[in-house]
Amino acid sequence: MSILLAIQDWDSAGWVARFSKNAPGRDIRLWPDATDYKGVRYAVCWKPPQGLLAKLPDLQVMFSLGAGVDAMMHDPELPDVPLVRIVDPSLTGRMTEWVVLQVLMHHRRQRVHDAHQRDKLWGSVPQPAADAVGVGIMGLGVLGQDAAEKLIGLGFDVAGWSRTPKDLPGVTCFHGEDGLRPFLARTDILVVLLPLTPDTQAMIDFDLLGGLRTDNHMGGAVLINAGRGGLQVEADILRALAEGNLSGATLDVFVEEPLPPESPFWTHPKVTVTPHVAAESDPDYLCTYILRQIENFEAGRPLENVVDRSLGY
Ligand code: NDP
Ligand code: OXD
Fold this sequence. Notes:
The strands form 2 sheets. The protein has a 7-stranded parallel sheet with strand order 8-7-6-9-10-11-12. It is α/β, with parallel strands linked by helices. The protein has helices spanning 12-22, 70-73, 89-107, 110-118, 142-153, 176-185, 206-210, 234-243, 283-298, and strands spanning 2-7, 28-30, 40-46, 61-64, 83-84, 134-138, 157-162, 172-175, 189-192, 221-225, 246-251, 271-273. It has 9 helices and 12 strands. Helix 1 (12-22) crosses helix 9. The site of NADPH dihydro-nicotinamide-adenine-dinucleotide phosphate has 28 residues, from helix 3 and helix 5.
């Protein structure tokens, strides 16, 4: 009944202490210190090295410490056992805060006011009501739906795009390839909350950005991406900013993270950068969530939030 923690770039000692405290009877092992993998039934992972999980002969369930599972799905040797992802109300709430912050910042032209302040300029800018602004959310899952609900509460004209059809109160829903162009055409502010999969990889490109509505008070469309960097073609975003169909962008995720010092995004006057911090989870909550799921699994109850691997997630 051992648990192996395979965690990179995220305080692994803290995770050992947390699991040891909350599951005192369990054998908790930490990669790479542990070399004996026999008896490891559960793996708790954040960016595990490729091939590691295939070496666990007794593995029954894999847990991702994130909502996104792309880092695990990229492993060509990923074992064929259930993969559980994080669904955490505090993470969802934080993501919605970040999305609302960025949508309002662009809609209310805060960066223009910041520039005016620097120049001691008592300037004003056009200020349409929120219902005149189309916000389009790509990805209507746990995060997209919560953000949509809160943006509707603020009065925005909200649409969403997903893989399968949806019927959500107040949201104009589109889906699939046929729904993409009409969805983009009514969108002034595009919010990307998609997972990175073989189908979504690099889909935010110049052509897609060119489909957005540009005739608005911001002088062009706006891109806000907190999904994954691999969804976006970064040279195309820069081109769309230069050619004017994008008036601004906020990016929390990048193809290469940390964002390299030479990236033009750092200093671009129309780009806001946040360092993959749109939504963090409370580690204590995650530990409790995983241990509860293990307890349920051992009692023969179903696991929650199991990833559908047929989608390439
Ligand atoms: P969900 O799985 O709940 O939702 C994903 C949504 O994307 C679903 O609506 C799904 O459609 C849609 N989707 C997937 N593939 C396609 C496709 N090919 N075409 C159209 N729509 C598609 O995920 P979450 O909402 O929980 O999280 C979304 C992503 O956010 C994560 O995968 C992660 O990458 C990112 N994230 C980023 C964080 C950050 O701090 N920056 C923090 C947490 C997550 P359908 O419902 O029809 O299947
Ligand atoms: C996640 C993330 O996927 O933080 O949870 O990016």
